[in-house]
């Protein structure tokens, strides 16, 4: 069995040949239906049209705001029109943070403006702003090891570059400075903080994002903003002259009391074992700078487009229930994900597998799972059906998406249909995250993969749950 795990992890095609065994999770009839779904997806642009609709009719959808409420209404109406059953909103409360004025400038020795954006949860500088000398560090770790004498009374600048990668592997390290810099800076006596944007673009768009999970130490931390990459480069060049550099920041966000958010849920009810659930998710909220097309309007279009194809192909429904969950308030700390795990705790043993689309709209290129070793051959049989789409076998350490964190930790089996994210962090959390970045052909490939996967897992008699 250890050998089997190793074969799956390195993605050897020979293992997929072996998957055509008596224990295969996929019957010939299921393969025929899955292939029909793949063919239909190439002729159906429903996913693309759904992204167009959401980003046009609602636009940006900041958690806890009136715009997110309109997005929930949009989602309920779309789920009902598409024919899903048990459509509902499961509400919860979320702290609200609203962006205000955002101005940055080098005051001396080289006066000029800077392109900045406040980070989610940041405190306000007040209308008068703050002006102070800049002290630069090349990483969060370097700041954490600094003395109070180095930092007190200054504006901290973390100049750490994010590494571009196909699977987004550089994000985990880069995001740490966004999460913690404001709080470490406060402890060391700084008056404000700047970070090089957590992103890979060289264009003059600053990347926003949550500093820390909503509600955690809500009144703590210095005011903090992200610099667009070219502006971070410019500030670094100014500092290289060896003269003190003074910067002024004015950011005036508001922290408001908790307001309503919610998860929107709809189901394709199983015809034989409706209590068994295949969960497929995406998140409905977005940041407020763009229109939330790449993050995560694309995911909404993908999972709803796939659900539509399955209902067209199987009017009687698959064996198990497919539950589509459009999570609310993901961007401010996966609040909706936590609410779902809490609300459905007693149901989780009936969740067969879960997956989420939240990495843009690039082609899916790899299939990862997180199942017990004795389930790998069955999972491989499902993965093999996706090979004509250019999807290769991956590993057995899938994370599945941010909204699946709590389900994963509670033992729900996970699958990742991993997209090509080479340019995802060029647009992520910026004003450049708009509908024109969505490629219809790539979105169709995603819809095809999700439709086939959702159908196969919901139709098979194979059980991927952990056995205790």
Task: Please write out the topology.
Layout (H helix, E strand, L loop, with lengths): L1 H9 L2 H6 L9 H14 L4 H12 L8 H17 L2 E14 L3 E7 L3 E3 L1 E3 L11 E8 L2 H5 L3 H4 L3 E4 L12 H17 L4 E5 L27 E4 L1 H11 L6 E6 L2 E15 L4 E11 L9 H21 L6 E8 L7 H9 L7 E6 L7 E7 L5 H10 L6 E2 L11 H5 L4 E6 L4 H4 L12 H20 L9
Parallel strand pairs: 5-6, 6-7, 7-8, 11-12, 11-13, 14-15
Antiparallel strand pairs: 1-10, 2-3, 2-9, 4-8, 5-9, 10-12, 14-16
Q: Which stretches are poorly predicted, pLDDT < 50 over at least 5 residues?
A: 1-22
Shape: elongated
**Percent strand:** 15-25%
Number of helices: 15
Describe the sheet with the most strands: 8 strands, mixed
Number of strands: 16
Q: Which structural class is indicated by helix and strand composition? A: alpha/beta
Mean residue pLDDT = 93
| Distance between the ends | 18 Å
- Give the strand order of the largest sheet, numbering strands 1, 2, ... along the chain: 3-2-9-5-6-7-8-4
Helix content: 25-40%
Radius of gyration over all CA atoms, rounded: 23 Å
Entry keywords:
468 residues, alpha/beta, eight-stranded mixed β-sheet, five-stranded mixed β-sheet, elongated
Describe the protein.
This protein is α/β, with parallel strands linked by helices and 468 residues long. It is built from 15 helices and 16 strands. Helix 3 packs antiparallel against helix 15 and helix 4 crosses helix 10. The radius of gyration is 23 Å and the shape is elongated. It starts with a helix and ends in a 9-residue tail after the last helix. The N terminus is likely disordered.
Describe the structure concisely.
This protein is of the alpha/beta class and 468 residues long. 35% of the residues lie in helices and 23% in strands.
């Amino acid at each position: 069995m250890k050998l089997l795990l190793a074969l799956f992890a390195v993605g050897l095609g020979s293992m997929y040949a072996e998957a055509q065994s008596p224990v295969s999770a996929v019957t010939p009839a299921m393969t025929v239906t899955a292939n029909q779904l793949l063919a239909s997806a190439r002729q159906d642009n429903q996913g693309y049209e759904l992204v167009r609709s959401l980003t046009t009719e609602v636009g940006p959808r900041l958690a806890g705001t009136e715009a997110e409420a309109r997005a929930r209404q949009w989602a309920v109406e779309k789920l009902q029109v598409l024919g899903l059953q048990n459509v509902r909103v499961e509400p919860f409360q979320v702290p609200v943070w609203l962006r205000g004025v955002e101005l940055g400038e080098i005051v001396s020795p080289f006066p000029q403006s800077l392109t900045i954006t406040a980070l989610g949860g940041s405190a306000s500088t007040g209308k008068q702003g703050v002006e102070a000398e800049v002290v630069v560090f090349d990483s969060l770790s370097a700041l954490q090891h600094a003395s109070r004498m180095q930092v007190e009374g200054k504006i901290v600048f973390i100049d750490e570059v994010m590494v571009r990668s196909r699977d987004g592997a550089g994000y985990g390290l880069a995001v740490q400075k966004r999460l913690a810099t404001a709080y470490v800076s406060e402890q060391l006596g700084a008056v404000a903080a700047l970070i090089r944007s957590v992103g890979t673009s060289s264009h003059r768009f600053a990347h926003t994002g949550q500093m820390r999970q909503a509600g955690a130490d809500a009144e703590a931390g210095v005011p903090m903003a992200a610099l667009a990459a070219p502006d971070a480069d410019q500030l670094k060049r100014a500092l290289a002259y060896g003269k003190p550099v003074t910067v002024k920041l004015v950011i005036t966000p508001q922290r408001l009391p908790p307001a309503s958010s919610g998860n929107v849920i709809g189901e394709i009810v199983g015809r034989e074992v409706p209590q068994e659930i295949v969960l497929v998710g995406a998140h409905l909220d977005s940041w407020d700078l763009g229109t939330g097309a790449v993050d995560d309007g694309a995911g909404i279009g993908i999972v709803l487009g796939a659900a539509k194809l399955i209902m067209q192909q199987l009017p009687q429904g698959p064996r198990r229930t497919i539950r589509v969950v459009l999570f609310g308030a993901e961007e401010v700390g996966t609040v909706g994900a936590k609410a779902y795990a809490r609300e459905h705790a007693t149901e989780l043993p009936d969740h067969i597998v879960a997956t989420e689309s939240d990495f843009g709209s690039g082609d899916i290129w790899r299939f990862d799972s997180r199942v017990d070793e004795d389930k790998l051959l069955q999972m491989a049989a499902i993965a093999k059906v996706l090979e004509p789409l250019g999807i290769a076998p991956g590993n057995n350490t899938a994370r599945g998406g941010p909204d699946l964190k709590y389900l994963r930790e509670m033992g729900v089996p996970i699958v990742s249909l991993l997209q090509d994210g080479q340019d995802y962090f060029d647009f992520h959390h910026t004003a450049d995250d708009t509908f024109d970045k969505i490629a219809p052909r790539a979105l169709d490939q995603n819809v095809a993969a999700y439709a086939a996967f959702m159908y196969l897992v919901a139709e098979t008699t194979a059980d991927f749950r952990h056995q205790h």
